[in-house]
Amino acid sequence: MGDAGEGLVDAEARIQERLDQIAEEKQARLKQVVVDPAKAREIASLKLARTDFERQMAATGHDARRRQLKAAIEQVNKRLKALGG
Fold first, then answer.
1. Domain of 58?
2. Do 60 and 66 meet the contact criterion of CB atoms below 8 Å apart?
3. Handedness of CA 50, 51, 52, 56 (dihedral sign)
4. For the chain, how many structural domains are there in total?
């Protein structure tokens, strides 16, 4: 009977070691993916603005407005590229 108990203790120890390993891996990944919240908000805002400009571009037929929207989209794309988004 003593051997069966030792096997159970060994199994529990292996399970706990694996749980510890998983927790350490998760912490390592979280440390690698630290994102500046202000930067993330700005990127999201720029993407939303670009989507709105593209929607307006599809809806308008006026050439001057289309040029304005195209310039705005290009500017948003430049800012996104500079931010890495």
1. 35-85
2. yes
3. positive
4. 2
User: Which secondary-structure segment (H or E) carries 74?
Assistant: helix 63-83
Q: How many residues does the chain have?
A: 85
* Residues 27 and 62 grouped into a single domain: no
Query: What is the rounded CA–CA span in Å between residue 50 and residue 43?
Result: 11
pLDDT digits (tens, 9 = 90+) for 8-66: 677 788 888 999 999 888 887 777 666 788 999 999 999 999 999 999 999 999 999 99
- DSSP character for 35? -
pTM for the structure as a whole: 0.59
Residue 66, exposed/middle/buried by CB under 10 A (0-12, 13-18, 19+)?
middle
Asked whether the beta carbons of 46 and 79 are under 8 A apart, the reply is yes
